[in-house]
């Protein structure tokens, strides 16, 4: 499965992409505000990666769509993006998007482009009704990305993320299909 935006290509991970995946999830700078700590070894990361590869083979009850993100112009790997299916029924469903970029690609608008593309895939391809995203309340850059992607702040959950010896708040943003259609047609 592959998708493209103006500057980016989104493709599912293959057996040959483990080093790309590991470059994201072992990077302390990338993982600074995430719920999980960076992987300390390839052996620690491998079961998670194998779960992604296994999920890619699912057809009917897929729980996630996880992509490597590459620049269109030179095919450079820049990060990871995903859509988690929270629930689905005959009337749509809800999903959650996320992304992680290598630090050398921060500040170029890629995160916003990724988020908008994931929202578009969620509504147009996966027939979801609502898409949400979360971030650590200290991660102002991620909050700005959610706003630029057209999402609306739905709340702040107090002291729910434990990281580096203290509890942080979490911001929740979301958008429903009707709002996305209104602003993108």
What does this structure look like?
Helix 1 (18-25) crosses helix 2. Helix content is 30%, strand content 37%. The protein has 5 helices and 8 strands; from the N terminus they run E-E-H-H-E-E-E-H-E-H-E-E-H. It has 185 residues and is α+β, with helices and mostly antiparallel strands. It has an 8-stranded mixed sheet with strand order 1-2-3-4-5-6-8-7, with helices on both faces. It has one domain: Aminopeptidase (3-Layer(aba) Sandwich), CATH 3.40.630.30. A hairpin with a 2-residue loop joins strand 4 (77-89) and strand 5 (92-101). The longest helix is centred in the middle third of the chain and has 16 residues, at 110-125.
CATH superfamily: Gcn5-related N-acetyltransferase (GNAT)
Please trace the helix and strand order, writing H or E for each element.
EEHHEEEHEHEEH
The fraction of residues in strands falls at: 35-45%
Structural class per helix/strand content? alpha+beta
Spatial strand arrangement across the major sheet: 1-2-3-4-5-6-8-7
Question: What count of helical segments does DSSP give?
Answer: 5
What is the averaged pLDDT score? 96
């Amino acid at each position: 499965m592959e998708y493209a935006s103006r500057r980016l290509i989104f493709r599912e991970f293959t057996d040959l992409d483990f080093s790309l995946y590991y470059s994201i999830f072992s990077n302390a700078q990338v993982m600074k505000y995430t719920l999980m700590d960076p992987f300390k070894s390839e052996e620690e990361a491998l079961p998670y990666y194998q779960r992604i590869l296994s999920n890619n083979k699912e057809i009917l009850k897929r729980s996630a769509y996880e992509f490597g993100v590459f620049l269109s112009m030179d095919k450079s790997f820049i990060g990871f993006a995903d859509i988690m299916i929270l629930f689905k029924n005959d009337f749509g469903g809800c999903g959650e998007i996320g992304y992680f970029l290598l630090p050398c690609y921060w500040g170029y608008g890629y995160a916003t482009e990724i988020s908008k593309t994931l929202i578009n895939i969620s509504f147009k391809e996966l027939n979801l009704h609502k898409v949400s995203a979360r971030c650590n309340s200290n991660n102002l850059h991620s909050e700005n990305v959610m706003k630029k992607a057209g999402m609306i702040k739905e709340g702040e959950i107090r002291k729910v993320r434990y990281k580096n010896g203290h509890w942080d708040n979490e911001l929740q943003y979301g958008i429903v299909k009707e709002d996305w259609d209104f602003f993108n047609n």
